[in-house]
Amino acid sequence: MKRIIIVAILFELIIASNAVAQWKMLNNGSFGGTIKSTLVKDKDIYIGTSCGVYLSTNKGENWVPKNQGLTSGIISKIVSNNEQMFLAISSGSVYISTDKGDFWVSISNADELSELQTLVVKDNNLFAGTTKGLYYSSNNGGLWIQKPIDSTLKDIKSLTVFGDSLYAGTNYGLYLSTDLGNTWIKKNMGITYPIVLCLTNINGLLWAGTEGDGLLVSTDKGENWIQFDLQIPYNFNTVNSISCLNDILYVATKNGVAISDDWGFNWESVTTGLFDAEVYSTAVIDNCVFAGIENNGVIVTSDKGKNWEAKINGLANINMLSIAIDGNTIYAGTEKSGLFKSIDYGKSWFKVKCNFSDGSIFSLLVKDKKLFLGSNGIKGLDITTDAGDSWNVITSEFKEDCVRDLKPFGNIIVAASNTGIYFSNSTYQNWTKSKNLTIPNISELAVNHPNVYITVGYGEIALTKNDGVNWIVKKTGFENQWINAIAVNDNDLFVGIEKGILLSNDEGENWTLLNPNTEMRYVSTIMAYGSNILVGTSDEGVFLSKDYGNTWAQINSGLCSRFINKFLIDGDNVFVATGNNGLLTAKLSDFGIVSVNEKAVPEDDISIYPNPVQNDINISFNEIVSQNSEIRIFDMLGQQVAGSRIPSGAKEWKLNLEGLPRGVYIVKVNDKIKRIIKL
Question: Does residue 206 contact residue 189 with C-beta atoms inside 8 Å?
């Protein structure tokens, strides 16, 4: 009998074969993301994201990454001092560039500046605000000294220079220093809620954005503060950034932009075109105002906020939740940014108009030239037969459900939703809900006909063998571990938990932890085929095993975000949807993995049976062994626990395993790798 097989590479070579492999971003013309900081330098605009710095020299029409020398992390602030540029990464790193961002050099120790929130330059002195207080450097970061602090001047969220004074906005109010931060005076007169998020100097006045008091202004260098009534809806009382263009104030808030053309006496709220999202930063170039939006990149207005246009060409800082591929067309579902499509296999992207305002797209599936979409933007299931030009919404069966996962199941589809599991008919127009299932908020499912597996919650999964008529709950033995991911490969069932990845070969009756000696934690997604297992985590990026989970390697080169949401394999290409790093791709062959499109070959030139085994295993060769060979047995910790030499001339060989404990083992015969179960 023939089938498609994947021949595993020797697991001793796993690290070496991964050394040259790297993930590459598919970001030309796509996506957006959360922009925490902006800097205008001459006519150029720089933005800081959770995945690096981007530069536009043409008012946002195109963006190019400027990340050489940077490590990953959320960029909380970008500032400049003549030809020097400095940026702060929230994990505690400060970088300097003297060539307009082409190359960055670290000038701090992440341990001393941990939880870094802001930077400012005063008279060639660099100040860094952290949750622990204020740090100072007079030699471009060569040496950092912590300034004296009292019990309240700790959580520094903003810094600015006004005249000869240094101002610090904290969780406990506003502070003033006239001696480079050696001593501080509290300046809270008129401030009710003392969390000061931003500070700036506009038109000779000191302005402060707060969490709770909204926008404040001082006409006497901070001695007294006046609060503005922004006259706009709830949530505008949190102000993240303040800019001014032609005597018009633009205030970035938690739920849009507030605009005043009379210095704060009257205000207009602007949310149209802002994706109903938090606005973190603003910047001004010529007659344009730029705004950095949560999850949606950069938008710009040139008509006093009446119209806003997205400027995301080249940005990739976005939370990608789902992927689907149809030939050369790739669909990418995002968190709060809608659906994107590429018709040239990821070279260029454009946004697809759907039936809902920008929402989170949890699931995408291409089947029979139809694209199925599950989102929280619309209740039910969206279907398109023309690549997104028009959509048909199925709501009658799903009612108020949000579809969170979709899997092909023979000639039908299975859908997991907030309230249950649905099975389609062969035309996908009618769906039947499984009536004997009372488990809510099902986020993941896996299928291996006739079996359908679903995640239940803490330490449990559920299985049906009859299209949802009956369900059987299976315990993993990790009752305090939430199951975040589930996948099936032939008879192998995998689930992802906080401690790593579990394997069952008997439909969930018994489980083995595959990664006891690795850094793998908080597994978020799993892709398995042949002897290969790809594991995505929410903290540590991607792990790969090419020998059924016996050995593991991290493959994170090129990843900015190590929060992995989904994998998709297409031929020799593997795609990974990340949190705040968009969509990336790599070649399976670069990782030493054979493409899933390899042609069918005979199952193997060796056979190992019985499997499962109680006492003896038999090794049968298709041809007589021409030279001495070796069989080795490894446990799931990678330790050799049994073995034997096979002399030349043999065609059959037997090895006794009676003394081994019950469990999963790897059998290696020369360069062939198999897995067996010891009963």
Answer: no
Q: Which of 107, 76, 77, 111 is nearest to 94 (CA)?
A: 107
340-398 per-position pLDDT tens digit = 888 888 877 778 888 765 578 999 999 999 999 998 766 678 899 999 889 888 876 77
d(CA 402, CA 421): 11
CA 559 to chain centre: 10
User: CB atoms < 10 A from the CB of 459, how many?
Assistant: 19
- Rounded Cα–Cα distance for residues 238 and 197 (Å): 8
Q: Quick check: 249 and 289 in contact, CB under 8 A? A: no
Q: Which residue has the tokens 């031929």?
A: 571
User: Out of 48-62, 301-315, 563-577, which region has the weakest mean confidence (pLDDT)?
Assistant: 301-315
Beta strand spans in 546-613 (E): 553-554, 564-570, 573-578, 583-587, 601-602, 606-609
**Rounded Cα distance, 126 and 133, in Å:** 14
- Whole-number mean pLDDT of the chain? 83
Q: Check whether the bond before 602 is cis (ω within 30° of 0).
A: no
Token output for 548: 């059924």
CA torsion, ordered 342, 343, 344, 350, to nearest 10 deg: -40
CB atoms within 10 A of CB 396: 10
Cα separation, 576 vs 582, whole angstroms: 9
Whole-number Å distance between alpha carbons of 297 and 116: 22
Q: Which residues does residue 63 pair with via DSSP β-bridges, in sequence order? A: none
pLDDT value, residue 295: 64
Q: List the one residue out of 121, 88, 120, 81 whose CA is nearest residue 104.
A: 88
Instruction: Tell me how far CA of residue 309 lies from CA of 41, 291, 444, in angstroms.
Output: 22, 10, 36
Sign of CA dihedral 425, 427, 428, 429: negative
pLDDT in tens, 66-80: 888 887 678 889 999
3-state secondary structure of 588: helix
- Rounded CA separation 334/318 (Å): 7
Strand blocks (E) in 370-499: 370-375, 381-384, 392-394, 403-409, 412-417, 421-424, 431-433, 445-448, 451-455, 460-464, 472-475, 485-489, 492-497
**What is the rounded CA–CA span in Å between residue 13 and residue 11?**
5
